[in-house]
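Appendix B, Record 12. Input sequence as logged:
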Amino acid sequence: MEFYDIRKVESSSLILNLENGSVEKPRYERSFSKGFRFLKNGFWGIFSGNVPDKEGIERAKANAVEKGDASVVEAGKGGKYVMKVKKNPEDVSIEEKVKLMREIENELKADYIVSTKVVYMENVRKFSYADSFGTEAYYEVTRSGVIIQAVGKDDVMQFYSRRILKPAGYEMFDDSVFEIASDVRERLCELLKAKLPPSGEMDVIMDSNLCGVFVHEAFGHAVEADHVLQGSTVLAGRIGEKVACEEVYIYDDPTLMEFGFYPFDDEGVKAERKVIVERGVLKSYLHSRETAAKLKGKPGNARAQGVAEPIVRMSNTFMAKGEYSFDELLEEAKNGVFLAGSRGGETNPATGYFQFNAQYGYIVRNGELAEPIRDVSLSGNTLSILKNIKLGNSIEFDPGFCGKAGQLVPVSDGAPLALVRAKVGGAA
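Logged structural output:
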């Protein structure tokens, strides 16, 4: 088969940094780029450049010089979506944005705080798509947010950060950003007095943030179909198998108005919720149009940074809530730890092993929260964890940027509180 597609991306973004009272020079970027792909003899030819469409297609075709096994499924009819925001960030002056940042910074001030950083960001992405099947799609999406960081010092030094990032306009900056800044200040005060964690296998209650990172990093990457085709995931060839206890439902949903929102993916496929795990059974992988053709799946998760090559990516990936209240999870745990937030870590989809560093935690003693702990890590095997997990009765989402193959895209992870059995230790 022969197939081609054309992507056009217009992007405007602003990043402001306020570090220890000093504002760095604003970073404002505006770009327009075109990407062309041509599929011939099962091999992709790729070209990017601001040339007329016909020329771009011909250049991509000229780059399809080998033979391969690639093919694509049709994307559907496409469509149009334009996000309406209440307050366009581009209509707000730099001075007003800096004023907001300084007000946030004021909430961070305390004798023990030795360094602060507030990052403001905004982006408008205008995306258009057309292919040789006749699919045409267009959207405009605005994203805004702040990242709030601070370092505290006593006998030790501790770092803590929070962020609020949304598909929204400037109207998102309400009192909640100051509440988050206050939380950063107060949490650091507690962390400076916290003890080092116990070590060994024990009952662990993960907060929504840490559990969401687990869902995204330890499980989500393992169901990306390109990893499946490479055989680099423990979930390859396991559709229809039970991979978790019956209480576990996992979804990827780009239609949710969270940071990973998009109306169409970068191959023109209309966004829709994907059921990944239902009642503990693996139902589907996440697909591009090419992997969907190879594995008889459903496309809609091909994403790209700019007009780079679209690859299989997550959007808003989350585990559905369960039935337990926080107090009930504490009672179930009896003795162990409660861990919250994430400071990074590592996962291996091929083995299912993961290791994450939490931002803070507490000892759980006799079913109650006791003294705080710091510099703590959590590790275990993904499928072992999922087969014996108890889930809280509310869900929260945490935004961020996910990196893969040198490309960053906005995502969001969601999860309830979760009680698991895992290894706990100190974190570097």
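The mean pLDDT is 96.
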